[in-house]
Amino acid sequence: SEELYSFAITGCSLRTLRLSRGWTQAELAAQSSCSVSTISTIERGLHDMSVETFLALCRALDCSPTDLLGGQ
User: Fold this and answer.
1) Is 37 exposed, middle or buried (0-12, 13-18, 19+ CB in 10 A)?
2) End-to-end distance of the chain based on CA atoms, in angstroms?
3) N or C: which end of the chain has fewer CB atoms below 10 A?
4) Rounded to whole angstroms, how far apart are CA atoms 22 and 43?
5) pTM of the shown model
């Protein structure tokens, strides 16, 4: 479905942005106040994230929402 595809793209972008900063999932979790399991499931495209989580990840990664959406 289109919605699941979008989450997979976001997860891939999240992983790419995280790795570009040299961060582990635990480091991103600490910076964003999310759990490591949440980061993991988002990166695998399995987690429906809330707007609050999405924005927390943008702030932690110092990126725009468009960046986290993979430029969509």
Assistant:
1) exposed
2) 16
3) N
4) 16
5) 0.84
